[in-house]
Amino acid sequence: MKDGFVISDDENISDEDIKQINKFTKRVLKKSEVYVFSMILCDNEVDREYEKFTVKSLEKLSNLFVGKTGILDHDAKAEKQLARIFSCKIENLKTKNSVGENYCRLVAKAYIPRTKNTEDFIMQIDSGIKKEVSIRCLMGKNLCCICGDNINLCEHKKGKIYSVGNKKVLCHSILEDPIDAYEWSFVAVPTQVSAGVIKESSNGKLQNELEIIDKIKLESSKKENKNFEKLIKNLEDKVKIGQNYIDEMKDEVFKFLSFAEPQIERKVIKKMTDSLDFDELKNFRKVIKSKNLPFYSQFVNENDQISQKKISEFKI
């Protein structure tokens, strides 16, 4: 089993999306009848089990996973079927994985029919409760990165560090030649570090963050230590400003929901608000303010909010 995570929900379903979806339906569905979301199924990074897909493996899996069913906790009962993948592709990002290769990931789009029975599950995806996913597939080869032989038969042990020439190498297995893809499932703890559901903003925030990481790595390889230290300090300051602002927004949303919905346990509200990202928190606060509720001013002090100047500083 290998894991991934949800990237985003797509409010605007394209004509191509609904065309691909209707290849798997008994009748032609309208855009309003389906909920579409994207997710990272897996990538070419070494995971928690010290295993890694090759790029060629990901390319083949991109074809094998089209049409596969999404379930809960790998429970193959028919009533556990929740969603279906209708498209899958490889994404290459401007960064490197832990072994120095160009990082790439397998991104899939799936749909859920909008019914009374699926309303709660869709809300769990939107609120970040259902986020991590895991895949099941059959691989033809499981090779040792040290010697190239079958890792189950060679002398090397996954997770152990070996000297190869002048380098120290973490032993891991290389997964090649996918034979079949069985299913994918929402799980609590994924094997791959980057597996699960995330929310990517429309301005490409995730891509910008990865580019910043690349710049830091590049700068660290230079001898201009003062410039590097200045860059790190600048980023640290901006992260602190941004985190303080996010914490204030989470606290505000938490208080609002606790006051407005007293029947919901506070630990449930806390879990939900902690899962919201920056854009989701801003939208939530905007909706709250637009309601002009009489009790809103009881716990929101406008003078305590971070100034717009500080907010702009947060946008790296």
Instruction: Report the total helices.
Output: 8
Which sequence of SSEs, written as H and E, runs from N to C?
Answer: EHEEHEEEHEEEEHHHHH
User: Reading side by side through the largest sheet, how are the strands ordered?
Assistant: 1-2-6-5-4-10-7
| Mass-distribution shape | globular
What is the element layout, followed by pairings?
Elements: E1 2-9, H1 15-21, E2 34-43, E3 51-53, H2 55-64, E4 69-72, E5 83-96, E6 102-113, H3 119-126, E7 132-144, E8 161-164, E9 167-170, E10 173-186, H4 205-220, H5 225-260, H6 266-275, H7 278-291, H8 308-314
Parallel strand pairs: 3-10, 4-10
Antiparallel strand pairs: 1-2, 1-7, 2-6, 4-5, 5-6, 7-10, 8-9
Task: Describe the structure concisely for a colleague.
With 316 residues, the protein is an alpha+beta fold.
